[in-house]
Specification:
mainly alpha; 3 helices
Length: about 70
């Protein structure tokens, strides 16, 4: 058995981090791909999201107002 440079044994196929045994089902990946918008996003990101969704928003609005418009869509 090969030994990793940190002294841990390698898995059979080689590198220990190349194995993703927790791979989600395709339908779960689609749910994760949908962006979730919050106050942690920048105002520019929220304005871009609103434009993508066809929501009327402008730079004069607060982030909270833009979020409310996005959530209402």
């Amino acid at each position: 058995m090969s030994v990793h440079s940190l002294g841990r044994p390698l898995r059979r196929a080689g590198h220990p981090t190349r194995h993703n045994h927790n791979k989600a089902a395709p339908e779960a990946e689609a749910e994760e791909a949908a962006p979730e918008w919050s106050m942690s996003n920048t105002k520019a990101q929220l304005l871009a999201a609103a434009a993508d969704l066809g929501v009327e928003a402008d730079s004069g609005m607060t982030k909270a107002q833009i979020l409310a418009a996005i959530e209402a869509a």
